[in-house]
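Students often ask why we bother encoding 3D structure as a string. The short answer is that it lets us treat folding as translation between two languages. Here is a chain of 325 residues written in the first language.
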Amino acid sequence: MTAAPLFPGFDGLMTLSRREGVDIRPTLLRVLTDLYVQASAHSADEERQFVELTSRLIDQVDDATRAAVRARLAIYPATPAAIMVKLGLRRSQPSEALPVAAAIAAAPADAPMVKPLSDAQLRMAASLSMRPNDAAEITDMFFTAGPSERAQILHNLYDTPLKAAPRISAARAARALHILEMAAFAEDVENFTLELGDALILPSRIAAQVVNDPGGEPLACAARALDMPSAAFQRVLLFLNPEFGSSVHNVYRLSRLYDRLSERSALVMLAAWRGSTMAVSRAKYRAALYDDERHRARMPNSQTRPAVQPGTAPAIRTGTDGSKR
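And here it is in the second language, the structure alphabet:
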């Protein structure tokens, strides 16, 4: 008994499209891909049918359709190896399994009930401004941490009492998202960095550090601060840095992180990035100010002006008769 085809009537639809003069191959490829990624696993026959049908269509569709299909399959963990090669996708390490979320531990039976905070308490708790030194410490800790530590830092920022940065206005964010996506498609890292720094009010040094970070977590944080749609973020990952985007592991890992990243965590981290620049600016003048304070501390509280300045002799007045007075 033969298994039912994955996409019934596919060959008939192809024949009909050629006879009627209407090219429906882009639509067929998109539908076929959507059907395939809906299931978490496939049998050997289903995979063989998908590879056979998709391989014929990939070379016959336009670039936009091919890019959309590539984006869908890049984050799908069960993409066949033959299709990955055809689309230019690869795993970071072939023997490395894709990350799986850890099991959620069951809560103890005798756990005390915690009363949730009221809205007023939450507003008061979230009003603690971040000092420049604290902001610099958080920024350094985040950029020097590994992938798992960065995810934990972002998770903890959601409950921190530190004040988050204000939301980017909807109009400014929409304009930035359009420019950023176009720059990513063109692989224009320089303009992408300039627009990101301008939209998030970040200095060029921090913006470049966010974009060029090899792990990608800072870029996910910046995109969440702009409320970038998940699909758009995946396209940015695929096209901005082709070498990074060709790794299924990288795209899949960051896509999962992005979907779980809260807006508040991203805005608190944005506030830390902005505040860290103030700490750097103060450090430039710290030595001079420190010496001035020590100098003032060594000075006596009260000083008397000498009656005679050094190097000068007191004036001697003489009378008309030549006598000294």
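Translate back mentally: The first helix runs from residue 10 to 20. Keep this in mind for the problem set.
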